Amino acid sequence: MQLKYRLDEIPKGSTLVLSSIQWFVFTLANVITIPIVLGQAFGLSQGDIALYMERGFFVAGFVGLLQAFIGHRYSIIEGPAGMWWGVFLVLIQVTKDEGGSLPMLLREIEFGLLIAAAVFVLLGAFGWLGVIHKLFTPIVSGTYLVLIILQVSKSIIDGILGIGFHNRSTVSPEIILLSIVLVALTLWLMFKGKGIIQSIAVLIGLVVGWALYAALGLVEAPQTKAPAFHLPNLFPFGPPKFHLGVTITCVLTAIILLSNLIASIQVFSDAAQEKAGNREYNRGSLVTGIGTALAGIFGTAGMVPLTGSASLVSLTGIASRLPFVIASAGVALLGFFPVIGQWVATLPAPVGYAVLFPVFGQMFGFGLQNYKRLALNQRDIVIIALSVVTGVGIFFVPATAWLGLPPVLSYILDNGLIVGIILSLIFEHVIFRSRNKSGQSS
């Protein structure tokens, strides 16, 4: 889609209002799921989960504002990284297997996030991210985007089918029908809508879906009463506590998440028709470090720039910074009102999955576009095949298969995304290193 508003341009009238609302809802849709899942996994009460979500809103919105003003300065949503989510779930399982304490683990994660934050801050402060960026050639970035979508595809399809919704363990025909309607509506608005309607296709889909589920009695009211106003607590689970295994795991995760940061800036700059340089990467890393530190201080999952932001820009044609800033400020303010966040969380998960399904598909397309920039000779095909097939294959290996290994190795080897990225880096820059300096390869 041709851009209607570039990064520094200001949308007019209703377009500004509605695009701000769309960024707001899109941000919430990317933030609300993980606090709920993690809160339940950590054994938190409903009231504590509401506060956990409150702090997540505040950190996500505040870091988004920092990025827009002093970081990479792009309209890229900050949200809980799926990789941090996976790390926490692995650490929970390891803690349970070892008979450890989950409340103590929460304090150890606080410490681990603070140390991981230092990695991002140092890279940004000393300008080293530009050097690391050179490692992420089209073949590595493409592999990352393809693998991350394949990794979350099961969750997406489960959500669209209604598996897990209201504790259902089987496919729900009525949910499937509603999901088909919402996917079709969203796609139709994206490709056939005119003007502002096309630009807010995701927002319209979410509102229509929420209304349909409410009319059918599928929206559950909050079971407990959250406070109307509440300041986010500092170190809500207690003072940070050092644990070597948890800290090493968090630092390794931060290093791997550099690929997420780099890919998000790369993909967004392409979608917004902007040129990203070392300045954007280094400042983005610095603010991501601040955001990771805030996640440790406020006891939330680590925040990272989300690649899906580029998909929204590509589908709406609006890359303007102002609507994003307004939306981020709204999300941050939401962190002071747990009762509002509690009601926002009643958005049925299948609605979010169905409406955002085309957005996730767009991310997969970005990965293919990276591959399209390659010569796709025998060398490129071997690297892509070995990296992607290995990564996808690991998705199907039971987590219990790695329990005999040290926790750090267990986490790394159980994550197909990490293994695939590591393999692509090794193949691209070491084993099959090319002498061609044209920019296609190393």
How would you describe the overall organization of this protein?
It is built from 20 helices and 2 strands. It has helices at 13-31, 33-41, 46-69, 82-97, 102-125, 129-133, 138-161, 173-192, 196-199, 201-215, 244-256, 258-271, 278-298, 308-316, 321-334, 338-344, 349-372, 378-395, 407-414, 416-431, and strands spanning 78-80, 303-305. Strands 1-2 form a two-stranded antiparallel sheet. The radius of gyration is 21 Å and the shape is globular.
Summarize this, please?
By secondary structure, the chain is mostly helical. 69% of the residues lie in helices and 1% in strands.
- Series of H and E elements: HHHEHHHHHHHHHHEHHHHHHH
* Backbone shape: globular
Kindly report the spatial arrangement of strands forming the biggest sheet.
1-2
Which strand-content bin applies to the residues?
A: under 5%
Helix content: 55-70%
The overall average pLDDT, rounded, is 86
**Computed Rg:** 21 Å
Number of helices: 20
Distance between the termini: 31 Å
Strand count: 2
Task: Give unreliable regions as ranges.
Answer: 437-442
- The helix-and-strand class reads mainly alpha
Give the tally of structural domains: 1
Describe the largest sheet: 2 strands, antiparallel
